Give the backbone structure.
Amino acid sequence: MNLYNTVFAGAKQALDTAAEYVEKAISIKGMEHKVAFPDTAYSMPLIYAITGKKISTLEELQAAVDIVRNLIVRKEQLREAENAGMGAAVAAEIIEVLKYVTLEKPYEDPCMGFLPDAVIRGWGVGLVTDDIPGQAVIIGEFPDNESAAKVIKEYQTKGLLTFLVGKVIDQAIEGGVKVGLEFRVMPLGYTMTSVIHVVTVAIRAALIFGALTPGNWEEFKKYTYKRIRAFVNAVGPLSNFKVACGAGAINLGFPIVTDQNVAEVPMKLITQKDYDKMAATSLEIRNIKVKITDIPIPVAFAAAFEGERIRKEAMFVEFGGGKTDSWELVTQRDIGEIEDHKITVIGDDIDSVTQAEGRMPLAVLVEVAGKNMQPDFEPVLERRIHYFMNYIEGIMHVGQRDTTWVRIGKDAYEKGFRLRHFGEVLYAKILDEFGAVVDKCQVTIITQEAKVKEYKEKYAFPKYNHRDERIANMTDESVDTFYSCTLCQSFAPAHVCIVTPERLGLCGAVSWLDSKTTKELDSTGPCQPISKDGVEDSIKGCWTSINEAVNTLSQGKVNRITLYSLLEDPMTSCGCFECIAGIMPEANGIVIVNREYSGQSPVGMTFGELASMTGGGVQSPGFMGHGRHFISSKKFISAEGGPGRIVWMPKELKDYVADRLNATAKELYAIDNFTDMICDDTIAIESEAVLEYLTEKGHPALTMDSLL
Ligand code: SF4
Ligand code: ZN
């Protein structure tokens, strides 16, 4: 059978199965039964993107089967074959959503099935910074576990997101690959139709970050081809359905590399039977370039290990975590004061740790020098220590400054990992990322208790205090320059963040100091200074020079923004925001929901649903994405009365911001413990009960000017 016939046969089979399953579901549950994937604002994302319609009942789903029928037009041409491939993908979406309708637990560990919107938003920053350079989709079964593990580990060490479908899941696990969200290897499901769960990731990325118009399928295809660096590895025997899905992938712009004999299509479908070369071939065909720094340590080093936790049983030694002193510091020195690449360990190495305790004190002192270095960059470099140490396989790093908690796993110890390797990693990465400002770097690792304490008093505390003072004195009024950040334009082409001392980027990862550093590191890069000229409205935070910059940087899409208002020309959102604020009219205030919270909010929307109201660089008054730290800023919607408008937050977020927010509220409104007045999910979610709580507490929003 030729390839075209296979595609049509596969799509037709999928269509028949989908149609049959829909009828079966209707006969059990009835026409009116609700249909949607969980934790998403887009119901069935692929159908939504193609038709502009959010499926909500089985009756509508029944009608959607016709979409598949219409996509399958038999003709021996690439275009028709690609459409039939999309038909197979829609059929798969139907089959998969029915699992969620009819089964109590459609997916069991290790399989993940449908991934929530919040997960995709969480990947946003990684995608734009190239920390996640691409996405690999592996479907099928390798001849053996070793080949599977080899290919997947190669993607993992390069930081790609890897999605697994089929028997390859067990092969990966048996081959020793660490899987799960935190390792960037996502086992989706064993049946072939679960491949749709990565297709909807691509589609939702377009919906979330690209602000595309659902129903305009050509736009989606362009977006996924241009901005989503995904490819497929189809391994093992090719079924009709697999081939049909392959045609669908090509339609989305994702090339396929297979170990089977096929009639190759240049740049779209390639055979590679050598598993040692499969990853390289795939990266090349999708034009993914990965920068790797070679670091002389005995374990792997990759961004994919960032989320790795070391459990107590697997731990060889730990530092800090409240049990011993543990701190870290990046400090600037004169060029003559330090020696480049000098790594010193003061005190015992980890071999000496007695297993009964397994605990030591730790200080990590990184001294840098360079003619373009400034003290303002120190905290920016210092915060990267957390990431650099976490990227080491078998190491866990939590916290910052003098609250760090570091664990070294037994595996890492057995492979020969010792303290000086921390120095090697920090040295290599700091020069790699900050080479434009750092000419020399030396690292001192200390475990000797007296020295850890002595240096803490002598070097660390004075620095921390000095920086805190500098930040506390830094207001939007105290500087004459703000920064634009356009990093997210690779996914949200019209979005611009304006970063000020009192308002960090909505991703939570870019402060004013960060953007200042970025500008110094890369003078034509994503962060550019904008001097504050021509104030138009100081209450709402509106300047002519900023409007002009936003207009230029958004290619004319947005021409006026305010920095301190939610209702009038609020700043746009890309999609990777940590939190979303929305109005709760009956409380005359706003609710804020963070990405991690999956429940309902008093405005009748989840984070995902609220988040879908804004994004893609579009202004949507009344909804605003923002960073966690912005909540306690005096500039937070100050045009509408400030943080005193906040009436509800999930408990976790409320606790997280409590100290700072309470201090701000004390200053602004002379209220003590303001967060006690804010309702949360453990108190009430339903609107009336929330209002009751606010009234009982005398929440200030109730007596503020009317919001609307
Ligand atoms: Fe994206 Fe804004 Fe963060 Fe820059 S500051 S990375 S544009 S969200
Ligand atoms: Zn973003």
